[in-house]
Amino acid sequence: MGIAFARAWRLMLAFEVAATEAALAEPLITRTEACLAPVSWPLWTSDGLEAYGTALLARHHVIQSFPRTGRRGRPRRPRLVAHPRLQYGQVVKQRDMRHRVIDVTQRVVFGAPPPEQLLTVYVERHNLSLRQENGRLRRKTLAFSKAVGGLRNQLTLYQAFYNLCRPHRGLRQRTLQSARGNTWRRWRLVTPAMAAGIANHVWSLRGLMTTRIFINH
Question: Is this model's pTM higher than 0.70 or not?
């Protein structure tokens, strides 16, 4: 399973379920780009596997051709080169025999993003919450999902609940309130959808389940 996560808003953009990372990379990127503005070029960050880099290159590339070279003037085969505006980097972790992380390296693959902005800590923390709050993702339990369809339905509901109903502690805003001459600090709860400008209030679960959405085609 793969998750697309916007760390600035702690927003869960998309997810994809597949047997291998190579199988889910292309559909996950497609679903993620459908959520973004048409002309936006975000900074993509992933782990050290090559599946996401291959999928990004296949979607965003230009064809580089070469002049005729050699005595007979045979043309060289054109090759695919990443689009100049594509930015992608990897966070590569090295582990010891006990699978403990001993070193973390930022690797720039496409473009020239600052290495310090290549982070996966936010999506990894989100994956922890995802597993803690979804029994279908826990191994060796009766709730473990055995059908892909049921898992997709569960994750779709959780994505809506997480973005609209669940306030994120890292997004809360400090406010000042006063009454009878006394002033004190309080916290305003903010959901990922509110941080991204999609919603203007914290939704209730009842409101989420009873809201009718009309789409004009």
Answer: yes
